[in-house]
Amino acid sequence: MICLLKVLGILLLIAAGTIAGYVQSHRLSQRVQQLEEMLRFLNAAQTEIRYSAASVAEIVQRHGRSLAFLQECAAHCEEGGGFPHSLEERGAGWFERDGPHRSGTGSF
After folding, report:
1. DSSP label at 13?
2. Does the predicted TM-score (pTM) go above 0.85?
3. What is the chain's mean pLDDT, rounded?
4. Residue 96's pLDDT is what?
5. Whole-angstrom Cα distance, residue 95 to residue 83?
6. Cα separation of 100 and 6, whole Å?
7. CB contact set of 54 (below 8 Å; sequence gap of 6+)
8. At a CB cut-off of 8 Å and minimum separation 6, what does 30 contact?
9. How far apart are the C-alpha atoms of 52 and 32, rounded to whole Å?
């Protein structure tokens, strides 16, 4: 009986470790996708700044809809705030390694 409990405990421990690994790998793959989106945005923004001399607020409003913190910055820019102030107000928590520091929003 004790041997059966030990085996069951070992199996539960292995299952818990496996599930935790899958969850963490999913979070990391989402992070990679978000960073790739950010790189695409930065490349588009660099090109647009270089060739059209558009303001950063215009570029964020035009191209930043795919990134969550840029959506919030774009909304703040539309309300009349400048981009640097918008980034400080809306986007500061999104640059943390573990995601935003807000309750109930999930991880970045």
Report:
1. H
2. no
3. 77
4. 55
5. 16
6. 41
7. 48, 62
8. 107
9. 30
